Amino acid sequence: MIPDLPPVEASLVEWAAEVCDATRVEVHFTGLSAAGDGPFTWGGDPCRARPDLRLHIDDRSLTVRPHLTVWVAVEVAAADIPAGGLVVSLPGEVPIEDLRGARVHGALVARGAISAGTPITAAVARVAPDAARDAEVTLVVQRGALQVGAPGRLLQEAHLGDRVRVINLATDVVLTGTLASTNTVLIP
């Protein structure tokens, strides 16, 4: 039980923390007067500020609309980051209602300017490309045992395995291939 909270609120905090994988839960209002000593069983989705929940006490069932703040651990921007800049983050804790988009991990770049302390989600950052636009690459054509290479330049940023447009620098012809490594494009 959580000290200094009525038993029904303490049970709500414990349940919501487990369901939402929360670091902490604050109950601002439950709308319940004395609900007894329990046992209390909760149902619904507590991972929002004003959820509709079901409270089961003994043989009774109530609809409860508490006001909660559910805090979760998430990476946040370590400093202000300009649009297109590499995201540098640190562990933080934010209300779940402040998260916009799915959490993303790995090497990230900012979609737009990001302020320090902003939660890092798909709404504000994207996975950094493996190769940048205008990067110099080797174009490789393979037919059986014969392999031919030529210098080329990417016309778009890309991730490994992406279909990409490239320009053959020897002929100025635009081709489409697959990014095989950060500096190699396979031409079919």
N/C terminus separation: 65 Å
Structural class: mainly beta
**How many structural domains in the coordinates?**
3
Gyration radius from CA atoms, angstroms: 26 Å
Order of helices and strands: HEEEEEEEEEEEEE
Total helices: the number is 1
Q: Per the principal axes of the C-alpha atoms, what is the gross shape?
A: elongated
Helix content: under 10%
Going across the biggest sheet, name each strand in turn: 9-10-11-12-13
Mean pLDDT: 90
Provide the fold topology.
Layout: H1 7-20, E1 24-29, E2 40-44, E3 53-57, E4 60-64, E5 67-77, E6 89-95, E7 108-110, E8 125-127, E9 136-143, E10 146-154, E11 163-168, E12 173-181, E13 184-187
Parallel strand pairs: 9-13
Antiparallel strand pairs: 1-5, 2-3, 3-4, 5-6, 7-8, 9-10, 10-11, 11-12, 12-13
Give the gist of this structure.
This protein has 188 residues and is mostly beta strands. The chain has 1 helix and 13 strands; from the N terminus they run H-E-E-E-E-E-E-E-E-E-E-E-E-E.
Written description of the protein model:
The termini are far apart. The model has no long low-confidence stretch (mean pLDDT 90). Strands 9-10-11-12-13 form a five-stranded mixed barrel. It is 7% helix and 43% strand. The chain has three domains: 7-70, no CATH class; 73-127, no CATH class; 136-187, Roll (SH3 type barrels). The protein is built from one helix and 13 strands; from the N terminus they run H-E-E-E-E-E-E-E-E-E-E-E-E-E. The protein has one helix spanning 7-20, and strands at 24-29, 40-44, 53-57, 60-64, 67-77, 89-95, 108-110, 125-127, 136-143, 146-154, 163-168, 173-181, 184-187. The longest helix is centred in the N-terminal third of the chain and has 14 residues, at 7-20. It has 188 residues and is mostly beta strands.
